[in-house]
């Protein structure tokens, strides 16, 4: 394959009708311009330019070669401009992976609002309970609750805190009563979020920390499934505040054990470290940070946190 730089130099010489001017236009030395032309002629086995001290002219072979080279250089320049525009965020695709419940309730509405002001950007949202593999290239951005170990070797932009809240339906409470302390959950039908230590609900209250091993007749790795079960009166659930907030406000769910706090998680936007991160991704992440911070809308529906925050979110595992 021929050196594209040499082809570009040849096109520049013909356009400028001067080795000296071509060198200035290309930002290289006149000696390098001369070498590029000589190397091309040697490798092709033909003379491309007739040159004297005052004039440069194309040979017959040079004319045919120039027409093709000019198109190649033009297309290469257009390709560079296209990629530069892409990196500046004027258009392009953002592939996002997020959890099912958060995606349906909060991220997709945020995407709609963002696209209303950025119509030249395309967004592909994948809802999954699996943390997407950014290295494989299947996603550009992950938006979800995450624990610190998983964020090693990645860039994680904190978007918002996510409290965990114990809830049940009014119907369940009328039939089984209101738990007064976390120990009362040992006698309750608890709906378990199927994740590491999902059955161990760790509370903190005035008397200190208390860990309760809960059990029940339903487990799920999707918060939405447990949310529906709790609203149907099947049991007590501990779920992220972003899932239960609107339903507490509507009266479909009731907060329980409000004198106690479960560990707080953090909502992150996670992406690969890259100094040349496309501007469209930076813009979208900044949009999310402004939309969800400093206090996310879902927490405004709930009782104040039991324990005062210190201004930094906890990265503890979910209950």
Structure summary:
With 319 residues, this protein is α/β, with parallel strands linked by helices.
What does this structure look like?
The chain has 319 residues and is of the alpha/beta class. It has three domains: 4-87, Winged helix-like DNA-binding domain superfamily/Winged helix DNA-binding domain (Arc Repressor Mutant, subunit A, Orthogonal Bundle), CATH 1.10.10; 92-162 and 265-301, D-Maltodextrin-Binding Protein, domain 2, CATH 3.40.190.10; 164-256, D-Maltodextrin-Binding Protein, domain 2, CATH 3.40.190.10. 38% of the residues lie in helices and 23% in strands. It is built from nine helices and 14 strands. It has helices at residues 4-16, 19-26, 30-44, 60-87, 100-117, 170-176, 223-231, 241-250, 279-292, and strands at 49-51, 56-58, 92-98, 121-127, 141-145, 155-162, 164-168, 190-193, 200-205, 208-213, 218-220, 236-240, 254-256, 265-271. The protein has a five-stranded mixed β-sheet with strand order 4-3-5-14-6, with helices on one face. Strands 11-8-12-7-13 form a five-stranded mixed β-sheet. It is rod-shaped.
């Amino acid at each position: 394959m021929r050196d594209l730089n040499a082809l570009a130099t040849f096109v520049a010489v013909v356009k400028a009708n001067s080795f000296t001017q071509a060198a200035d236009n290309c930002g290289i030395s006149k000696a390098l311009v001369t070498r590029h032309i000589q190397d091309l002629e040697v490798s092709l086995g033909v003379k491309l330019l007739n040159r004297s001290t005052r004039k440069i002219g194309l040979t017959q072979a040079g004319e045919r070669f120039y027409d093709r080279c000019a198109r190649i250089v033009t297309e290469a320049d257009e390709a560079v401009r296209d990629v530069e525009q892409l990196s500046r965020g004027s258009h392009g695709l953002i592939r996002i992976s997020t959890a099912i419940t958060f995606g349906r309730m909060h991220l997709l509405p945020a995407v709609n609002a963002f696209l209303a002001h950025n119509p030249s950007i395309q967004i592909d949202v994948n809802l999954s309970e699996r943390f997407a593999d950014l290295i494989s290239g299947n996603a550009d951005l992950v938006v979800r609750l995450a624990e610190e170990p998983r964020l090693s070797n990645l860039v994680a932009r904190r978007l918002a805190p996510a409290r965990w809240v114990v809830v049940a339906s009014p119907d369940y409470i009328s039939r089984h009563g209101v738990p007064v302390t976390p120990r009362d959950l040992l006698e309750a039908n608890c709906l378990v979020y199927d994740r590491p230590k999902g059955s161990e609900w760790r509370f903190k209250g005035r008397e200190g920390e208390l860990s309760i091993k809960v059990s029940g007749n339903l487990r799920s790795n999707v918060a939405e499934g447990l949310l529906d079960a709790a609203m149907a009166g099947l049991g007590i659930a501990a779920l992220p505040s972003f899932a239960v907030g609107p339903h507490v406000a509507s009266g479909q769910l009731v907060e329980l054990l409000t004198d106690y706090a479960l560990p707080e998680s953090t909502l992150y936007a996670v992406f690969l470290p890259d100094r040349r991160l496309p501007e469209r991704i930076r813009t979208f992440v900044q949009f999310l940070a402004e939309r969800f911070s400093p206090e996310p809308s879902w927490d405004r529906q709930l009782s104040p946190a039991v324990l005062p925050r210190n201004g930094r979110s906890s990265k503890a595992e979910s209950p």
